[in-house]
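Hi there, hope your week has been kind to you so far. Please have a think about how the structure follows from the sequence. I've dropped the whole record in just underneath, so have a look:

_____
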Amino acid sequence: MAEKADKTEQAADRPLLTRRRLLGTASAAGAAGLVAGGAAGAFGDRALRERPTALTTVGSAALPFHGSHQAGIADPAQAHGHLLAFDLAPGAGRKAAAALLRRWSATAAALTAGQVPDGDSTGIALDAGPSSLTVTFGFGRSFFDRTGLTARRPAALEPLPAFTQDALDPKRSDGDLWVQIGADDALVAFHALRLLQRQAQDTARLRWQMNGFNRTPGATDRPRTARNLMGQVDGTNNPKPTDSDFAAKVFVPGDHGGADGWMAGGSYAVVRRIRMLLDSWEQLSLARQERVIGRRKSDGAPLSGGTETTPVDLAKTLPDGSLAIAGDAHIRVAAPASNQGAAMLRRAFSYHDGFLDDGAPDAGLLFIAWQADPMKGFVPVQRKLDRGDGLSRFLRHEASGLFAVPGGCAEGEYVGQRLLEG
């Protein structure tokens, strides 16, 4: 009878799994493969091959919060994303900001490990594993004025120039503090969002929030480059972690000195909410759409020939003498060869916020560009796009921000500690 009672007791306990226990019961082989795939980097062929695809394995995947770089930069973009900006409350200065980053870092470290943070009784994601959750923190230009740290503001954090295609809403732009949340499960992502918002308390007030999505791992027959809401394969020519100059393009050098030496190992994020004029775009013929982009819609191969990963031949001509890749094609204008080598790592989410008064979808891209220096990455490329990109006729840039994202932290530390306590 005692043995039967023990079994009944154990059965009753089974549904009450904590996030830590769920992660612990995942198969060792499956979890190891998932962590390897998540840590391999973003967008390259190797990373895509190693990305988990079976839906039953998605919850077990975990990406470490601690490290030399913050997670959520060179990792594959997840299926669900939240972008938030906060402004420090009146009277909240450097000390209050440090306390907030300490709370946020501890919470993010617990959540990304599949644990329940101290004081969390929400139960929002109690049954889920970490689902590749990443939480990334950054500082806007105004943060340094509000905390008395103007002398330590990086030179690269200068305001972005105005572009002719901009129709920016200041209420949805900029901010003192920036947070990027990504996960392959919607509840896991919302759980992190809710806890961080609550923990801001009276220290910081939400300025804006944007929600995005990507294709769910396992939704395709094999891992593929993502598509945007225009139906185009998007991200083929991104810098790859296997490139010899990847770190130099994306991360601030580790030996970086001076007043902004605290940015060593960090990166700069340009955030743009870009609405796609889908009603106009979808009226174009397939051939015209492909000419605007410079790639085949079916498989992402460049119109100069080959497969998706074939290098673009910008000099190739057709039998009639015209360029295979049109002079205003997006991939020509954005190519590093057209911009003196300027490059950035694009890691985006799509969004759909309903419909406008005229019935057009309020949908597009939450564009996030990562680079070691935005004045050498995003700015020159966007200037070129602004002047001669055929795709710009179908886009509206409606919100913008630039944020300094410091390097990662070790266990027992918090993100931004070298700035706030240095």
About this structure: Residues 1-422 form one domain. The longest strand covers residues 361-371. The two ends are 64 Å apart (CA to CA). The first helix runs from residue 2 to 13.
